[in-house]
Design a protein that fits this description.
Layout: H1 2-53, H2 62-77, E1 81-88, E2 93-99, H3 101-105, E3 111-113, E4 119-121, E5 127-129, H4 130-138, E6 144-149, E7 154-161, H5 179-253, H6 260-290, E8 299-302, H7 303-320, E9 324-329, E10 335-338, H8 340-356, E11 362-370, E12 373-380, H9 387-390, H10 414-424, E13 428-433, E14 439-446, H11 451-472, E15 490-494, H12 498-510, E16 514-518, H13 521-527, E17 535-539, H14 547-555, E18 565-569, H15 576-582, E19 587-590, H16 595-605
Parallel strand pairs: 9-11, 15-16, 15-17, 17-18, 18-19
Antiparallel strand pairs: 1-2, 1-7, 2-5, 3-4, 6-7, 8-10, 11-12, 12-14, 13-14
Helix pairs in contact: 1-2, 1-5, 2-5, 5-6, 6-10, 7-8, 8-10, 11-12, 11-16
């Protein structure tokens, strides 16, 4: 009986041992899993903490996070190789961008066989087909996992070639245990979380940097304004001192017109008063521009006349320094739609600067056409401007000092104002300069109205149209948004000057007319038979014939005898109107064109 009772106890111990060993193995595997994940999480957290403490200019990158993941996964799984491949969503091939550090020093290069039987070499920058990665992802066990699909359309793949032992030397058979899969899935989750946190840190650092830059800019602006106030105070005091001082001398001595020195006193007072006025005007102009309250009057300008007038204003200052003034205007430069006062101001600012910074030689203005732009190049043979100073030129309140001149008057606002005025006209300003080789400032203004010029024409046309509708009791359907374009609203415009042509075309189109533009008589004869024209607008000075002569030719053709013709001309002397009407013109309008009058005339005859 004793022997029979002891046998079951022995068998029970034998049955318990495998279960105990299995439990120990599970504990080891679970310990490995938690330890490895904790190690990975600690490394990633350390990286994030370091990133958060970094200055914005010393940034932790996403690449460093991914490389950390690769190295930790390789260590935890004791893998032969761990790699990360990236590709755009639409690409058919990906490229290995990160690889575990141990794999980079091994020879031969680690390889893996794809499900299609292709041998894939795992090295940096190697290409792997996305099709292979997708199949490797579907395998059991898998050897590739989709790590991230970010908003930029980049897909990230994690590739693992494992051995049979983990980093603790414990056997983990991928086909028999879910621990390896758990480790990889939780690694992917950690990676997602850490990358999201990294982007938040980078965003905060970017905001911090922008705030720091903004504060620096505020400080710089504050310093510049303080400097501006000091400079302006000095500049204003200088001419005021002259005005007050020499006025005091005249009052003390008693003004005698015949005395030469009294005449000199008056010239100094006058010059100082003009200088003071210029200073105040520059300050006011900049304030109006910044507040978007600068009034601009758009007109068709005779450019050769305006340029000659501008140079006449600079002549005295240039002569006082012994400088030659030069003016070059191409034959094709005629008119421009702009504000004549502001265009003069732009050119004078550049020319006075050129004279100021030129001690010998010459200063000039060259006006040419380039594509659809007019180029106003103001050049000099002066001291030139260094690259460092060029970056300061268009900052408000900044000045460059001419060491060769005792007179460095000004507020440092002229170029800033000029640049703003150029932009208001839809153009831009360029500078070419070398030290001791002179400078060239070039204003580019569009021949065709754009920007605020175009907006001003359209606003005027809209107001005139509304006024015309009220006067003539037009129906509500006749609006700038929906106007029937029949033959009674079709205009043929014969004009070779681009500025005039565009001005009238834009304005009349806004009023609801359909405009066909031609440049010369030959184009007119070719176009007329192809359209039903309500009115012909014709310039007198055409490149191939006088406009009045062309009207005579038109009136000889029966089909064109009754078409109303309005002549546009600079002829405004007594008897000119009668001359135009005598050749068969219905009406005429003098230049510069009054747009409202033009609209009334066209409406009358159409």
């Amino acid at each position: 009986m004793q022997q029979s009772s002891s046998l079951p106890d022995h068998n029970s111990q034998i049955d318990v041992t495998p279960k105990l060993l299995q439990t120990i193995q599970q504990l080891r595997d679970n310990l490995w899993l938690e330890t490895s994940l904790n190690q990975l999480q600690n490394r990633l957290n350390d990286s994030l903490l370091a990133a958060a403490n970094m200055m914005p200019q010393a940034k932790l990158t996403e690449a460093e996070i991914l490389q950390t993941v690769v190295n930790e996964v390789q260590t935890a799984l004791n893998a032969s190789c761990v790699a990360i491949a990236q590709c755009q969503v639409q690409d058919i091939e990906s490229q290995i961008c990160y690889i575990s550090s141990s794999a980079t020093i091994k020879t031969p290069i680690p390889e893996i066989i794809s499900p299609q039987g292709r041998k894939l070499r795992l090295k940096l920058h190697a290409a792997i087909k996305v099709e292979d990665l997708q199949q490797m992802e579907k395998e059991n066990p898998a050897s590739a996992w989709r790590l991230a699909d970010d908003n930029s359309g980049v897909t990230v793949w994690l590739i693992i070639v494992t051995s049979n032992l983990n980093s603790n030397g414990v056997s983990i058979k991928p086909s028999l245990t879910p621990l390896r899969s758990q480790f990889i899935q939780r690694t992917i989750q950690y990676c997602h979380t850490v990358l999201a946190q990294l982007r938040q840190i980078q965003f905060c650092q970017q905001q911090y940097q922008q705030l720091a830059n903004f504060n620096q800019e505020l400080e710089r602006t504050n310093q510049l304004k303080n400097q501006f106030l000091a400079n302006t105070s000095h500049e204003i005091r200088t001419p005021l001192s002259s005005i007050i001082g020499f006025t005091h001398l005249l009052l003390a001595q008693g003004y005698e017109p015949d005395k030469q020195r009294h005449q000199e006193y008056l010239h100094i007072i006058q010059s100082s008063g003009k200088h003071l006025l210029d200073l105040i005007n520059d300050i006011l102009d900049l304030s109006k521009i910044e507040a978007n309250q600068l009034e601009v009057q758009w007109e068709i300008i005779d450019l050769p006349t305006l340029c000659r007038n501008v140079l006449a204003l600079v002549k005295e200052k240039a002569a006082n320094k012994g400088l030659k003034l030069r003016l070059e205007i191409n034959d094709d430069v005629t008119n421009l739609l702009a504000d004549p006062l502001r265009l003069k101001q732009m050119l004078l600012n550049l020319l006075f600067n050129a004279v100021k910074f030129t001690n010998s030689g010459s200063v000039g203005l060259r006006v040419t056409t380039e594509n659809l732009y007019l180029r106003f190049a103001v050049w000099d043979t002066g001291i030139g401007i260094s690259k460092e100073n060029q970056s300061l030129l268009f900052r408000p309140y900044s000045q460059i000092i001419n060491s060769g001149s005792r007179n460095n008057e000004g507020t440092g606002l002229g170029l800033m104002v000029t640049q703003q005025l150029v932009q208001i006209h839809g153009g831009y300003l360029e500078l070419e300069s070398e030290v001791n080789q002179g400078s060239c400032f070039t204003i580019f203004l569009p021949l065709k109205p754009t920007g605020k010029v175009l907006e001003a024409i359209e606003i005027k046309a809209q107001k005139d149209l509304e006024f015309s509708q009220q006067i003539n009791n037009y129906s509500s359907s006749l609006s700038s948004a929906n106007i029937p374009l029949d033959s009674s609203r079709t205009i043929l415009l014969v004009e070779d000057d681009l500025a005039n042509s565009e001005l009238m075309r834009i304005y009349l189109t806004r009023l609801g007319y359909r405009i066909t533009c031609v440049n010369n008589a030959q184009e007119m004869w070719r176009t007329l038979p192809q359209m039903e024209t309500a009115v012909i607008l014709m310039d007198v000075n055409l490149p191939d014939i006088n406009g009045l002569r062309l009207v005579e030719q038109l009136r000889k053709h029966p089909q064109y005898q009754n078409i109303p013709i309005i002549i546009q001309t600079a002829m405004a002397m007594k008897g000119d109107r009668e001359t135009c009407l005598a050749v068969g013109v219905n009406d005429y309008i003098s230049k510069p064109i009054d747009l409202q009058l033009l609209g009334s005339m066209v409406a009358k005859y159409s």
